[in-house]
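Researcher: Re-running this chain for the archive, since the previous output was lost when a drive failed. Same request as before.
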Amino acid sequence: MSKSLPQPALARSMRNVAALALALALTACTGTRKLTDPVVAIMTDRGMELGVSTEFGVVFLGKTADRGPVIVEAYFGDGPSMEQSVIEPVGGGLYTADMEIRLPHVPISFDLPTDGETLEVMGRRGWDRWSTMTTCRIVEGVEGVLVEIPEGFLDSVEQTGAGVYRPTGEFTKDLVGLVSGKVTIQRDGESRQYLAVVGADTLWRLAAHRKDQLRRRPFVYREDLL
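Model: Regenerated structure tokens:
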């Protein structure tokens, strides 16, 4: 005949089981790959552009299409994964696409870059991801964020939507905007080109949109992601 444990002993036993389960889970995670490649390719029937996978979902500029079906190509440690979805408007010229799996992603910083701040621009051409450093420039009379056109920037229509990041550590970064194109500023008889960036003053719309999606089905997590 079995005996029931006293309540204090039962509580201790449950805590021990929970601690053991946590320890086993952590052990199982040892050696898994922390994948931090947030660059995604956005493919529509009218072309390709870049986007970024963030903590609030995929975000892109909709330069090739602003409605209809889309294929989002994300990059894991074992190669690319192509996910089908539908374009959803976020507002402010931003678009997203709901994913059924959890993608490698980065946080968004809602703090606007300051003049002279060093930032990183990152994009992709095929399987090859490229990155280059640049400098933020605040130009009097010009709204929005501008960055200098960095050496090594891949000047191509397909690189529209390349992410602009604020480095936060040796291997970590926060998204501060998406490259929307080149602008020419004329001042004192001289002209100079910059990259225009759709920044944090617009990216908040993605976070607001994401709250409306919480009622949808949960993500399917890949085992090689933490």
